[in-house]
Amino acid sequence: MLTRKQFLTMSAGLGVGVLLPEVLKAKRTYAASPRLSKFTESLPISYPISPPSTLDIAPGKHSFHSSLGSFTTWGYGGLSYLGPTFEVTRGTPVKIRAFNKLGTHPLAGSVDTSLHGVNASDITNPRTVIHLHGSNTEPDSDGYPEDTYLPGQSNVYNYNNNQEAGTLWYHDHSLGMTALNLQAGLAGMYLIRDEDDPIGGNGPLGIPAGAPYEVPLILQDHSFNSDGSMSFPAKWDHEFYGDVAVVNGKAWPNLNVDRTLYRFRIVNASNSRFFRLKLSSNQQLIQIGCDGGFLNAPVYLSKLLLGPGERADVLIDFSTSLPGDKIVLQNDAAAPYPKGLATVIDQGYFRMPEIMQFTVNRGAAVPKAIPIRLRVNNPLITKIATKPVRQRNLVLTDILNSNFQVLAMMLNAVYWHEAANHPELREQPKVDTVEQWNFINLQPFAHTMHLHLVPFQILNRQSINDTAYSAAYRATGPRKVLMHHAPGGDTVPYGYPPLDPTPYLKGLPKPPAANEAGWKDTVVVNPFELVRVIVPFGAKATANLPFGNSFTGRFVWHCHMLNHEDNDMMLPFDVLP
Ligand SMILES: [Cu+2]
């Protein structure tokens, strides 16, 4: 069986338009959305509020654009689409009972029962479960993908919020249904505050917190049918790219801004799309925080890359803008990231060059100082000095059929149900130890790898001779699968655990970018690259950690490209006592 890279290389040799394989042709059948005016919708803003003790997960009627009309979508906490932004202070525990009040799925025609965990009943009796992404949370409240509950049922989530200020988000995590449930609207933002970033602002950094100058931005891409309802392919495909940018639930919105300093909490909540954001005015984006909290110092960026699941805490200074200026938030990332399908079809096909617009209000400029130090009460981030007790090599790959169609996206060539039922196929770190995890991407597209429970530091990235490594890794297989419903048949081509990549590495390791040199929980793994991360599996694993718990139990690690996660690119791991 060919790898996708070998196949794409082969296709390139045949020339554009010749022998378009199923795997690529499928993309062109996506419905083209109706033409929509840009920057005519007002950006909806959910300013932060305290979490409630009860949270409804329920349908509503929502319009993404004034020319599209209203259709059924899903939301949290009484919103028709997405959920309220919650804010809590570090160390203040929160207990939320969430009620599943969902009805027939708004994307009923796209429920694909060939995916793991998906049943026809998900159309009319949909499961849900909430994961608070970025939180250091007990296993029973972490949104394990099989801890779902049905309409009429509820579940209690305990978040002790024992961690530094950061940009968290909450979203559905139902096994096999996460992509459709997020596309339907089940996502919201959750901000943890602390002494450096107190509720209401007026903290030592001098940055806004809350209305009106701190604005959450939930970035997605969507497609719409001619009647204006949401469109999504009927069958699973290895990626989804919509042709309409949606921010906070509106298509290509506009935000009127005062001439002062704004703070944007940005999450990439899209299925597969990477955003590389820039401003049409060529002003810099000043990144002050990444996934898990503040960086050591602001990083001034002309472009900001965010893969699916990643967050950024960003300042934009509009005090130097002129009244009436229109500044577009642009995106120059190819899709798939980073090179598109350049060798086979039009490279620009899935691009989304514009996201939203800022229109600068009249009024005097009110400049504010950009903080120099971001960690006043919290310890500076220094490289974890504790030596890892072990390394784990973890491979990102896929399984193709004889027509080169992707059957499943895989981690370690292990299926979810195999690992869920066979501990010998699971990673099992010991609580309060430090481990090094090496993510090895054997595919021509980037992925974003996410660990639940604990944040990590990126050590470095290094190229790998993927052809030689793949061949040697393949020689460790095939492995007989332990659960026979697996889509690829009775075997997978590779053995377990993955082969040591050391002899196949090329060049020198590169340190993370300055805006990644903080606490991360989701990391971009580029094609044919090994990314080393160092992970403290508990608050006592080493010094100066940004969280306070040492939980044991079952959690998950996965690719955050939602179609990948839904088709086996997710595995359980256990933190052992
Ligand atoms: Cu992926």
Textual characterization of the structure:
With 577 residues, the protein is mainly β. It has a domain at 390-575: Immunoglobulin-like, CATH 2.60.40.420. Strands 10, 11, 12, 13, 15, 17, 18 and 20 form an eight-stranded mixed beta sheet that branches. A six-stranded mixed beta sheet has the order 1-14-22-21-16-19, with no helix packed on it. It has a six-stranded mixed beta sheet with strand order 24-23-25-32-27-30, with no helix packed on it. The longest helix has 11 residues, at 4-14. Residues 1-29 and 343-347 have low confidence and may be disordered. Copper (II) ion is lined by residues 409, 447, 559, 561, 564, 569.
Largest sheet: 8 strands, mixed
Give the helix tally: 7
Which bin fits the share of residues in helices?
under 10%
Count the E strands.
34
What is the rounded Rg? 23 Å
Tell me the span between the first and last alpha carbons. Answer: 41 Å
Q: Which small compounds were modeled alongside the protein?
A: copper (II) ion
Strand fraction equals 25-35%
Shape: globular
Which architecture name of the domain at 390-575 does CATH use? Sandwich
Structural class: mainly beta
Low-confidence stretches: 1-29, 343-347
The CATH homologous superfamily of the domain at 390-575 is termed Cupredoxins -  blue copper proteins
What is the CATH class of the domain at 390-575?
Mainly Beta
Mean pLDDT: 93
CATH topology of the domain at 390-575: Immunoglobulin-like
